[in-house]
Amino acid sequence: MCIKKLKDNTNEVQVVGNLEQKYINMANSNVPSGEVRMNPGAIKHIKKKHPDDFKKYFQNIPEIIESPDYVGQNPKKKDSIELVKVIDGDVLVAVKLDPSGHLYFSSMYLLAPSKVPKRLKSGRLKKVNP
Question: Which end of the chain has fewer CB within 10 Å, C or N?
Answer without folding.
Answer: C
